[in-house]
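Are you able to produce any protein sequence you like plus the matching backbone structure tokens because I've never seen that pairing?
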Amino acid sequence: MKRLRACLGAATGVMLTAAATTALVAGHASGATTALDNRWYAAAPYLMPLDNDPPDPAAIMDATGLKAFQLAFVLAPNGGGCSPTWGGTAPVSSDTAVQSVINTVRAKGGDVSISVGGYGGTKLGQTCSDAAATAAAYQQVITKYGLHAIDFDLEEPEYENTAAIRNEIGAAKILQQNNPGLYVSVTTAGTADGTGWFGKQMLLEAKSQGFTPNNFSIMPFDGGFNGAASQTSALTNFNALLQSTFGWDQATAYAHEGFSGMNGRSDSGEIFTQADFQTVLDYATAHNMDRFTFWSLNRDRQCSPVDNGGRTSGTCSSVAQNSWDFAKYSVKFAGATPPSTTPTPPPPPTGCKTAWSSSAVYTAGDEVSYNQHNWKAKWWTQNEVPTASDWGVWQDEGAC
């Protein structure tokens, strides 16, 4: 999940018991919230709350009906250590900025998932001593924000590190066990045959640990993709890979499969339009896939001036669009209907009154027609052509 992230910033834990975890979450007042249906967490687009000109989530919710956001990214401290930070620099323990964003979303009836990892930076799986310590670090995030969902974004360079991936998968399994009902997604790079060698090794690690998340999602972009057809082909191939790895039938594999796209122009210059998103959405819903998301809401707006696909930006899509066009596909995947942005049509024309005559005398309340509009006289008049004017004698009553 390259997605312009390389430039964005790059104690021993113990396994918590389920009872202790539940008590911690319940005891944190600012984090307590009612969970949404899992379909919303599955549809949550990525949002960087501290970087890339963060949009107002409340405005997006009002415009699209979106209820869930995938906040990114939690990393290890840039200086090393096994404690969670936003982007490697802002400790989760003392955070108030992201908490404010979460409070805004929850006040409007929504919720968030938090994504750990991403492209670039140092991940907790690389710096924590083992899976239990990694899980304890992530548990701090779950507890502070009262999370009902978490995303493990496993990609370069971490997924080339066998020990780090063992820690991440092991931590995901621990968190799943210790936080009943936690929605867990695992996101990794996509290729034409589903995912690459490191992605396949990650799946084998999950199998060896007996870990099954809600979904394994691939990112079919930045790999020579050309529109929706190449993406749905990759999803089909990834489904076959899930079947062969875990011994699932096709339907079970689709029920544990997800799509994570990139709206507009990708890092490698691929272009994915609204029509491409609709095609992949149709594929995902037809196959009962578990997840449909994209990178990112920070980019879900038209560049100014209009860029026409000439560059890749972290703050706009580089394709022609209205703000939050791509978010509406996530809303549809969740099963909701986005608010209509079509202007209310004018009322149909009414019948025309008797045609205006330059020689006739009209008094207040008399009605005539002129130039396919009906007009009403405000006072006595003769030989005054009906025109729209605040100070004129005639009041326009609309087309006829």
Remarks:
- Residues 264 and 341 are 21 Å apart (CA to CA).
- The two ends are 57 Å apart (CA to CA).
- The chain is about 35% helix and 20% strand.
- Residues 5-30 have pLDDT under 50 and may be disordered.
